Amino acid sequence: MKKLSFLLLMTLSLFVFSGCEDSESTSDLNYVSFENSTFSFGVEQDGSSTSSVTFYSTQTSSSARTFEISVDAASTADAASYTVPTSITIPANSNTGTFDVTISDTNISEDGETLILNFSAKSGLITGASITLNIKRVCPLNNLVLSITFDSYPDEVYWVLKDGTGAIIEESSAAGWGAYTGMTGGITKEFCLANGDYSFTIQDAYADGGGAVSLKVGDTYILDSDGAYGAGLTVNFTL
Asked: For residues 149 and 188, what is the distance between their CA atoms, to the nearest angstrom?
């Protein structure tokens, strides 16, 4: 008897659940969301770039619909570097829209910046998550990547990159050694260089080498050392 009652209860529960599911669908929801939660945004050095962002709604309408968006305060991009519309539109008889974002190379750090966009709250509207535009500077020339893995004595490392005339493009520290005192792990730096002649020098204050170091453009290595460079080494190269 108990078993029969249990089976009857389960059958009734399934019927009620199925009935609710059939009476409600996503088309009944006034929902709008960005297509993706993240977007990689490349900006040419000393230039600007424009990209389209896609968003969608669960409903269609015979007339165009406008939604408000805003820039989140957690964004790190310089306010002077971007142009973002305050309202975006889905055309009539569609559930998808796009809008353009333009970002210029203004105060973009080596690690990049973020621009976070949100839909503004509106009565009767359900909004999706924000979208984060991950902004990175893109080199239109030769993107030279320097990677150094620190050993137990990172304070002993010094490096300098020069052009063909001997002028310093960048160095670890103008004071010489000590730039990485107390640091662990390593560093990666990128340089956007025109075609020409260059030289890279890395030195160790104790003359016993340091951690691994590499210098490459794309998949081509200019330098690939395991760190056994003694007092130091210099590599001359042409891009």
From this structure: 9
Across the range 65-81, mean pLDDT stands at 97
Helices (H), the chain: 2-23
Calculate ∠ Cα 239-167-153, nearest 5°.
Answer: 90
Spatial distance between the Cα atoms of 157 and 206, rounded to a whole number of angstroms: 9
Rounded to 5 degrees, φ, ψ at 67 are -125, 150
Please state which of the four CATH numbers 2.60.40.2030, 1.10.443.10, 1.10.10.10, 3.40.190.170 is assigned to the domain occupying 26-138: 2.60.40.2030
Say what the pTM is: 0.69
Residue by residue, DSSP assigns 15-50 as HHHHHHHHH--GGGS-EEEES-SEEEEEEETTSEEE
Write down the CATH number for the domain with range 142-238: 2.60.60
Cβ neighbours, 10 Å, residue 71 = 16
pLDDT digits (tens, 9 = 90+) for 88-104: 999 999 999 999 999 99
> CATH 2.60.40.2030 residue ranges in the chain?
26-138
pLDDT higher than threshold 80 for residue 9: no
Q: Which of 167, 160, 161 is nearest to 142 (CA)?
A: 161
Residue type, 226: D
pLDDT at 4 over 80: no
What angle (nearest 5°) sits at the alpha carbon of residue 216, between those of residues 213 and 220?
Answer: 125
* Ramachandran angles phi, psi of 209, nearest 5°: 75, 180
Q: Tell me the C-alpha to C-alpha distance, in Å, between residue 106 and each of 136, 157, 171, 193, 208.
A: 11, 31, 23, 19, 41
pLDDT confidence bin for 52, thresholds 50/70/90:
very high
